[in-house]
Amino acid sequence: MPRLRVSSFTVSLDGYGAGPNQSLDNPLGAGGRALHEWAFATRTFREMFGQDGGTTGIDDDFAARGFADVGAWIMGRNMFGPVRGDWPDEGWKGWWGENPPYHCPVFVLTNHPRASIAMEGGTTFHFVTDGIQAALKRATEAANGRAVRLGGGVATIRQYLQAGLIDEMHFVVSPVLLGSGENIFAGLDLPKLGYRCSEHVATPNATHIVLTKRG
Ligand SMILES: NC(=O)c1ccc[n+]([C@@H]2O[C@H](COP(=O)([O-])OP(=O)(O)OC[C@H]3O[C@@H](n4cnc5c(N)ncnc54)[C@H](OP(=O)(O)O)[C@@H]3O)[C@@H](O)[C@H]2O)c1
């Protein structure tokens, strides 16, 4: 089983994993929502947000696979929220409400220390200020034999790719052009870092690609 994996990370045709100008009103950055239409349509994502229905099939299978057997998450501070710099207070607790869809420990990379936050449903946010290796060590211990999922955003995934620490990366190309934003692969020499494409399949909504690292 891959130790550290990325799942359902979605990029535009021009390589952006988030639109520009992320804000409270626009958590995915300008135009970013269009990226994720494939995911929002699936039964897995709808269930996660308490909604009925949704598509089944390839898109949904990939979405569900991303949540299977995950024991801990890692994410960057910008994915956790729009607050930048020192935390002004303990008010911001993520985008996801009182019961976030993680249900396990989540390690948030930041340069700004903060006490851990226990949420409903088993999610606890821990703030890690000593770098990606430390976050991975803590997440791996917390996952206790299950996988660690790296959620994003772009800056965080790029660091783990550059360090060769991601074992498997499922990313999804949406048929959307963003023009600007956070570019996921620019300047990264993935073959040199040991990655190859091990799976690819297209659906009407998106193209799913899995990159696997040489063992
Ligand atoms: N396309 C997708 O599927 C997908 C998935 C998830 C998220 N996203 C989107 O991606 C965007 C966020 O991505 P992003 O690239 O802006 O930021 P990010 O990777 O979420 O967070 C970057 C921030 O995390 C902290 N950080 C990262 N690495 C660190 C390290 N080694 N040590 C200490 N702190 C570290 C720093 O914050 P401080 O210095 O301020 O503490 C840094 O500015 C959002 O719009 C989100 O919605 C997209």
What does the model show?
- This protein is an alpha/beta fold.
- Helices cover 23% and strands 27% of the residues.
- The protein has a nine-stranded mixed beta sheet with strand order 5-6-4-3-7-1-8-11-10, sandwiched between helices. Strands 2-9 form a two-stranded antiparallel ribbon.
- Helix 5 links the parallel strand 3 and strand 4 (105-109).
- NADP nicotinamide-adenine-dinucleotide phosphate is lined by residues 9-10, 17-18, 22, 27-29, 32, 35, 76-79, 84, 109-112, 131-132, 151-156, 159, 182.
* Low-confidence residue ranges: none
* Molecular shape: globular
Q: SSE order in H/E notation?
A: EEHHHHEHEEEHEHEEEE
The oligomerization state is single chain
Measured by DSSP, the beta-strand proportion falls in: 25-35%
Q: What share of residues is helical? A: 10-25%
Distance between the termini: 12 Å
Estimate the mean pLDDT confidence.
Answer: 95
How many beta-strand elements?
11
Largest β-sheet summary = 9 strands, mixed
Strand numbers in spatial order across the main sheet:
5-6-4-3-7-1-8-11-10
Structural class: alpha/beta
Total number of helices: 7
Q: Evaluate the radius of gyration.
A: 16 Å
| Ligand identities | NADP nicotinamide-adenine-dinucleotide phosphate
